[in-house]
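re: that chain from earlier
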Amino acid sequence: MKTAIVIPARHASQRLPGKPLLRATGKYLIQHVYERACQSRKAGEVIVATDDPRIVAAVESFGGKVRMTRRDHTSGTDRVAEVAQDTSCDVVVNLQGDEPMIDPAALDLLVDLLERDPNAEMATLAAPIRSREQWQNPNCVKLMRDRRGRALYFSRSPIPFVRDGEPDFRADPPCVLQHLGLYAYRRPSLFRLAMEPPDAIEQMEKLEQLRALALGYRIAVGVVDHAARGVDTKEDYDWFVREYQQQTAKRVAA
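^ sequence. v structure.
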């Protein structure tokens, strides 16, 4: 299936304004994400979607492909859908612009999931939850799957509720999963999702993927070993810079 990876990027982040343009490593943060996406075997093309001319200039400076979008989009999904309208592809992958450590194999897995499950409209990823603290943290979105590996529900609450204690965090396969904010959509399904108004349960949980479940979408879920650390705060970015510098030093030494 012909696949486009679209990377929505905004300059106006609440917790770390201007983060796509941070470049303590010598590269823009958005450049790291773009280069990781280009390593995906499934990617026919990689496009940054933004409404900010500064990000357009940055992406063009390193030879990346970028599209300007409207400023009034309320979500990254809407921005991705606008770009996908002018893109000839079967599958659209939504990769957030603050994931400089994303594993290209995880992007390939998203497309593989749709190839294996032709009736699924979407695919997403999850990772095992291995601690009570993570399970109870509302910033960690949990999900449950059915026996076919499709999503049953997403929640900020600890799910499943364990009446007699708590989940076995060492279970293999894992019994509690953290949702990772990566998505692959069949192109028509993306357009329908972007056109629909928010669902009531989506507004209560503040989770956009619940709109897809409310529409009856079948969401294939793949499980990876761990979640890549995104860049939401200055602390996250400082951590990434250290990791990048250490990895660069190892490659030079080798």
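The longest helix spans residues 234-253.
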